[in-house]
Write a structure and sequence with these properties.
Elements lengths: L1 H37 L6 E6 L6 H16 L15 E6 L6 H10 L7 H13 L2 H8 L2 E6 L2 H9 L5 H6 L9 E6 L2 H4 L13 H16 L4 E4 L4 H16 L2
Parallel strand pairs: 1-3, 1-4, 2-3, 4-5
Length: 249
């Protein structure tokens, strides 16, 4: 009888031990699940970075891509993070010189076969339309960093004397950026940078016109101005802060 009573007591102790363990795990599991469900979930973004020639766009995008990958990618497993992230980071640029229209534009920019302003404008626009579906698809699960977009198309053609309303028509319907940055730097600064002057539009007086028009058309679309005289690291940090704030909304 004593043995039976002892076994029963041990059974009761074991039962309550496992019951307490179960309740502990249950409570903490739902606590963690609630924390994760309350965290803002990131959605893809289409981010455009504009600027005149040799303003540093390509370098900034390369550095920004690296810091975003380090900050965001593969962090969703850590419940201490402020954000859940399953997004990739990718980049595109315009013009894309690998396509049919891009090859025409490459010859135009390298001064091999120069097009008149209206023709070149429409070919630049067609080059962007070739990527319309790709941008929409990429944005579903990526932060897409775009080097130039239709704002440059408008500014460069208007600077050649074409009506701004005509210039805007060709790109109506293209995906709009979620964030638009303008690297704010003037032509008298970039003219001394390596590579300036090698292509069709790269001369100081013309870039001065482009700068004024580009600033106007981007600000009309709520562009974030970033001081182009800052160090590359500071520019990237400012852009990253804007992007992180957008992701948390």
């Amino acid at each position: 009888m004593y043995i039976i009573s002892l076994c029963y007591s041990q059974y009761i102790v074991s039962y309550y031990r496992y019951f307490i363990l179960y309740k502990f795990l249950e409570v903490n599991f739902f606590k963690i699940a609630k924390i994760k469900s309350d965290l803002p979930i990131m959605h893809g973004l289409f981010i455009v970075i504009e600027g005149i020639d040799c303003s540093g766009k390509s370098t900034i995008i390369r550095l920004l891509k690296k810091i975003l990958e380090k900050t965001l990618v593969n962090n969703s497993e850590n419940t201490n993070n402020l954000l859940q992230c399953d997004l990739g980071i990718t980049s595109i640029r315009f013009p894309d010189r690998t396509t049919g229209t891009g090859k025409i534009l490459d010859e135009h920019l390298r001064k091999i076969n120069i097009l008149n302003p209206r023709t070149s404008h429409l070919v630049f626009s067609a080059n962007r339309w070739e990527k319309e579906k790709k941008i929409i698809e990429l944005k579903k699960d990526n932060i897409v960093l775009c080097d130039r977009y239709y704002y440059s198309g408008i500014a460069y053609t208007v600077a050649q004397g074409v009506d701004v309303d005509w210039c805007k028509m060709a790109d109506r319907g293209l995906p709009k950026p979620d964030i638009l940055f303008l690297i704010d730097i003037k032509s008298d600064v970039v003219k001394d940078r390596k590579g300036f002057g090698s292509e069709f539009y790269e001369y100081e007086d013309f870039q001065t016109k482009v700068y004024e028009i580009l600033k106007k058309v981007t600000l009309e679309d709520n562009a974030v101005l970033v001081d182009g005289s800052l160090s590359q690291e500071d520019i990237v940090e400012k852009m990253k802060d804007v992007i992180m704030n957008k992701l948390q909304k």
